[in-house]
Amino acid sequence: MFAVDDCSAQLTWRASPAEDLTIEVGDSVAHPLASPPVQLVLDAPGRARPLDPAWPAGAGSVVLDGLSPATTYDVVATGRGVPRFRAGRLHTLAVPGEHLLCRFATVSDVHIGERRFGVMGRIHDALENPAPDGAGPGEPYPVRALRAAIDEAVDWGAELIVAKGDLTNRTTPAEVRDAARILSASPVPVEAFLGNHDNKQGVNSRAILGEQGLAVPWVPYARDLPGVRLVLVNTVDGDPRYHRGQLPAEIGLRAVRLSAESSGPVWVALHHPPELHRFPTVHPPGVPFGESRHFLDALVAAKPGAFVTCGHRHRNRRYDYGPIVISEVGATKDYPGVWAGYKVYDGGLVQVVRRISRPDVISWTEATRRAMNGQWQRWSPGRLDDRCFAVGWAR
Ligand SMILES: [Fe+2]
Ligand SMILES: [Fe+2]
Fold it and tell me: Which ligand minimizes its atom distance to the CA of 270?
């Protein structure tokens, strides 16, 4: 089980032993289509082999809706030649309030322009080469992942999408233009800010994004939705040689002031996670410890119920700083390949991180789980309660 919220659950698999799969959760029944086995292409384009050669069907995903909150369900599966069996058990989240006020979503680390993944870029996209029937190459995997993430988040009900930085891979003008065009084609409004990968080579990515209608201020700014204020904070370091972020005191305090000026709850987004220890223990480093502590202490004093979310590390985690809950959400384009949905209630917030389920995306993100000798699949996804949880506003 990859994702759960107060009324739905997402189940995903890397391979299936049966082609006619049926999955039942409570009264919800799904018949997901079998996809071809995932192809792993290591070291050179064209050198493809099945990732799980013993399994007849490949990676997939199904969402079961209409579940009751705070309820435990058995997940029952069956397939051709496979009798019904209990495949797992799930527990839906409690609803943190009486009224749902809005829904929005985030995408992080979309890295338009990336061509390969893993140490030394060993993992190639099986769909990168022209198909044998003469059809041209498909869209590159970061493009497929971002388009599908937007489509799936909007289908889920997102009224706005926030792109949390690392829109590109190397900040070439073509990458920035492609990212801007895809984001601005979204059927719902988009807010975006930069990551460290969008500030290289002296390219003015903000100007190119602006030409496509995506204004990206350097200074923190706010957008109000029903029931919540979004505060969007740029942490890009002025020196593009570094991965780390920056949050000078005056910028951090400006973000805190924007938060304090709202009479209601506040959701804060940054690209770089705040470092909570004097010496960074996780790579890549985030906002330096001193600046992070200064910002978070001021935010705790002004708005103790604030929720903070970040990208940059391509992993899913949840941790606390005093009363403040902080989440890191993974990339769209590498395992597990996700977007995050937020349901805003009068009493709190639900975060649900879902895998992008489009077949030509999940087949790629499944292949990337093999990065770093298979360590990526253990590091990146986090636990279910790192990804999906409900928090109350009053803390
Ligand atoms: Fe990134
Ligand atoms: Fe980053």
Answer: 2
